[in-house]
Amino acid sequence: PGLGTGVTPLTDRPMSFDAASLERAFAQQFVERRQLLKELRQYDDEKLLSLYEERKFLERRCNELHALHNGAVEGVCKLLKSRQGLLETAESNQEKLLGEIDGLEAKIAELQQQVADEKQQCHDAEQANEALQRKLEAVRPESHDKRTQEDATKDVPELKHKLDGVADEAEEATPEATDMAEPHKGTADQTPTSGEDIVELTKRLKM
């Protein structure tokens, strides 16, 4: 076959033993085959160049994908580490909060106990106050009478002085007034001995 070159194969040519014709025929076939090899080599070079470019592209793409993969793996590792750190921080904060909650609950219980103790103390104080009020109410009349008698006893000298002054004025005024004042003077000279007498004398002077 002439591989599409249009050259008639040697088997299809008429048999001839002409050396020159054979030489030309071999030379022509050699040229044709050389051209064919050249075309094949050029085709192979182009294909090899195309394959080399494709290989370079695929290699570059593989490197990019490898870098992306490494970045993704590194990012995932960082995320996992960050998540682990967040979990540890959250657990630590939770423990602190639980400890604070326990402390607050203990403080609340203590305050509640203090409030209960204060209420009990207030109740006891109210009961003691009521008992004192009852005692004061029971003692008040006696103390009032004693205080009245003591005050009246303290006023005796002043009352005597006033009665003496009234008697002197009556003596200077008229004999009748002197006669009337003498009983009062005698009464003033007599010191009252009881609280009731002193109270009665005080009322008379005020009148």
From TrEMBL:
Taxonomic classification: Eukaryota, Sar, Alveolata, Colpodellida, Vitrellaceae
Residue segments, region Disordered: 137-207
Listed Basic and acidic residues bias regions: 137-165
Species assigned in the record: Vitrella brassicaformis
Coiled-coil spans in chain: 87-135
Keywords carried by this UniProt record: Coiled coil
Listed name of the protein: Uncharacterized protein
